[in-house]
Design a protein that fits this description.
By secondary structure, the protein is α/β, with parallel strands linked by helices. It has 2 domains: 4-59 and 327-421, Aspartate Aminotransferase, domain 1 (Alpha-Beta Complex); 62-325, Type I PLP-dependent aspartate aminotransferase-like (Major domain) (Aspartate Aminotransferase, domain 2, 3-Layer(aba) Sandwich), CATH 3.40.640.10. Helices cover 37% and strands 17% of the residues. The chain has helices at 4-11, 49-52, 61-73, 85-98, 109-126, 146-150, 184-197, 222-233, 286-293, 310-325, 328-342, 372-381, 403-421, and strands at 28-32, 35-38, 43-46, 102-106, 133-137, 170-172, 201-206, 210-211, 217-218, 237-241, 265-268, 280-284, 352-358, 361-366, 384-385, 392-396. The strands form 4 sheets. The protein has a 7-stranded mixed beta sheet with strand order 4-12-11-10-7-5-6, sandwiched between helices. A 4-stranded mixed beta sheet has the order 1-2-3-15. Strands 13-14-16 form a 3-stranded antiparallel beta sheet. Helix 3 packs antiparallel against helix 10, helix 7 runs parallel beside helix 8 and helix 12 (372-381) crosses helix 13 (403-421). It is globular, with a radius of gyration of 21 Å. The protein starts with a helix and ends with a helix. The model has no long low-confidence stretch (mean pLDDT 96).
């Protein structure tokens, strides 16, 4: 049989890549705990936790067992006109940890954003308001499907290529970088946009506290508190995209908790299943679901084939229970302290523009994006897996990572930047 890597090279289109790939693709044989093993048995410390989803590491015994048990009972069943216990149990857990009431289980983060946007439009229509626009922040990122792309920053994001095709929404200034930074200019601009366009806007979509793919920008949570008040003033739904920030990544179960606010709608994904299976959810307040359900519209018009998949539900339950049973917050705080201390030595490097971290997230922003591939190659050669993005050299780790391995990740990123400085 043809070598599988050759098949991959000829036929597989990897994310954000050409075919065949113009960048190096690593052949992975297996995973274990917080390690990746390549085909040649090279061992890499995983500094990306599989795009921030594998919060417990790999092959966790409780999560493995949940899947094994469920596959013998019911691997899948359509959710239209049918209910099953596993989905109900997961829903109850999500209601408990979010404080919201109404859960729509779907199959990816981008889809949950699409459902959130549909829900906001239906909510406004149920109140006899024709509102189809959304307000989002500059530098925002909310997913790769068309609706989600339309609320990503169309000038500064990877989706600018599709600009003329996408719906035109409204964007306001993003808060300054820094957990304690001044946000007055951003909140002023937000209020001006709401005052001007509130009769057109169905909802305000925001990544709480950390803007992810738009720059790994950590900002002041107080901005969210003020923004929520403005949304209430203008009858705009506050939609928190917690796909990346949820399940502890910022040191709180959900990043909105830093601002002590509850959104009208929340989207979650990534860490929901501990990185085992694709699953996400759109969760709304009871008021939102009541307004839609009691109107002439009466229904939420969306229904993915794999909605409420029992296997995904079972492993999501196991993942959430594993979090709740362990002192995850203490561990994330310890990880944050290590990032804070170890990143300090990068601050004065000539290629480095800034450093920042929160929770299980550590970021080094360079002055330009010319070094990303060199830095990744260096890190892999030293046994560390990271995936730089433009100017951003960053790591988001599993909460089960050892202190020594975390320090090795940070040290290796810094050494990689120093190696690039020697070439300049």
């Amino acid at each position: 049989m043809e070598n599988w890597l050759e098949i991959d090279r000829k036929h597989v289109w990897h994310p954000y890549n050409s075919l065949p790939s113009k960048t190096k693709i690593l052949p992975v044989k297996r995973t274990e705990k917080t390690y990746i093993y390549l085909e040649d048995d090279t061992k890499l410390i995983d500094g990306m936790s599989s795009w921030w989803s594998a919060i417990h590491g790999y092959n966790h015994p409780k999560l493995n067992e949940a899947l094994k048990k469920q596959v013998e009972i019911m691997p899948h069943i359509m959710f239209g006109g049918i209910a099953h216990e596993t989905a109900a149990k997961l829903t109850k857990l999500l209601v408990q940890i979010t404080g919201l009431n109404s859960v729509f289980l779907c199959d990816s983060g981008s889809v949950s954003v699409e459902v959130a946007m549909k829900t906001a439009i239906l909510y406004q229509k149920a109140k006899n308001k024709e509102k189809y626009k959304f307000l989002a922040l500059e530098n925002s990122y909310h997913g790769d499907t068309l609706g989600a792309m339309s609320v990503c920053d169309q000038k500064n994001s990877m989706h600018s290529l599709y600009g003329e095709y996408l719906p035109k929404h409204i964007f306001s200034k993003t808060p300054n970088i820094g957990f304690d930074a001044d946000y007055s200019e951003a909140i002023k601009d937000l209020e001006e946009k709401l005052e001007k366009y509130h009769e057109q806007i169905a909802g305000f979509m925001v990544e709480p506290v950390v803007q992810g793919a738009g720059g790994m920008r950590v900002y002041n949570p107080s901005f969210l508190k003020e923004a929520k008040k403005l949304c209430e003033k203008y009858d705009i739904l506050f939609i928190a995209d917690e796909i990346a920030t949820g399940f502890g990544h910022t040191g709180k179960m959900f990043a909105c908790e830093h601002a002590d606010i509850k959104p009208d709608i929340m989207t979650i994904g990534k860490g929901l299943t501990g990185g085992y299976m694709t699953m996400a959810a759109m969760i709304s307040s009871k008021e939102v679901s009541d307004v839609i359900s009691n109107s002439e519209i009466g229904v939420l018009m969306h229904g993915p084939t794999f909605m409420g998949n029992p296997l995904a539900c079972s492993v999501a339950i196991a993942s959430i229970e594993t979090l709740l049973e362990n002192n995850w917050q203490k561990r994330v705080n310890e990880i944050e302290d290590i990032f804070t201390e170890e990143l300090k030595s990068a601050k004065n490097l000539k290629l480095v523009n800034s450093i920042r971290n929160i929770g299980a997230i550590g970021v080094i922003e360079l002055n330009d994006s010319n070094y990303a591939q060199k830095i990744q190659d260096y890190c892999v050669s030293k046994g560390v897996w990271i995936r730089p993005f433009g100017k951003l050299i960053y790591s988001i780790v599993a909460y089960t990572i050892s202190d020594d391995d975390l320090k090795t990740i940070i040290k290796t990123m810094i050494e990689a930047i120093k190696s690039c400085e020697e070439l300049t």
